[in-house]
Amino acid sequence: MQEKSNSNVVERISAGESFANENLANIDLSNQSLVGADFSAADLSSANLKNADLTDANLNDANLAGADLSGAILLRSYLVGANLTDATLENANLFGAFLSGSLLSGTNFKSADLRRATLGCPQCVPTAPFGNLTTFENANLEEAIFGEIKLDGIVLLGANFKGAYLYEVDLSEAIYRESDLEGAITKQGRN
């Protein structure tokens, strides 16, 4: 059974309280305004955050494994080091979000807006940072920054990479068409 009720969480967020390191596994916060919330290092595994407004939220090091963030608004949110294994972010708005060092194995970013988002893991070696079935299919990655990462088993079909900066990105194991990368800025390094 969940430890916190959704009404209690919304009230505490309105009061400016933090949920850092708290257990919120399986909680239903769908369609809620969670603007500026601090969920750093919180357990939000299997949480329902569908259509939630998480603008400017701190989700650094949060466990969002299996969470449903479909249609969620994550403008400028921090997800640095977050566990997004098997999370669904289909049609989510992650404009300007920071996902550096996040675990994205089996993550669904279909049709998500990732314009100006930052992704990559330059100084860490998590096990399979991007695992099989992770998809950015039809996602908008315009002006996004991908830094020093190997995109193993990633589906990029139909993604928009116009003006995206791919710095030392290894696409040898990714599924894409050359036309998907049109307009991307690349710098070949260890590839």
Describe the structure.
Mean pLDDT is 88; it is low at 123-127. This protein has one helix at residues 6-14; strands at residues 118-120, 134-135, 145-150, 154-155, 165-170, 185-187. By secondary structure, the chain is low in regular secondary structure. It has one helix and six strands, in the order H-E-E-E-E-E-E. It is elongated and about 50 Å long. It starts with 5 loop residues before the first helix and ends with a strand. The strands form two sheets. Strands 1-3-5-6 form a four-stranded parallel sheet, with no helix packed on it. The chain has a two-stranded parallel sheet with strand order 2-4. Helices cover 5% and strands 12% of the residues.
Q: Which strand order does the major sheet show?
A: 1-3-5-6
Q: Give the helix proportion (percent range).
A: under 10%
Q: Which structural class is indicated by helix and strand composition?
A: little secondary structure
Please give the count of helices: 1
Count of individual beta strands: 6
Identify the overall geometry. elongated
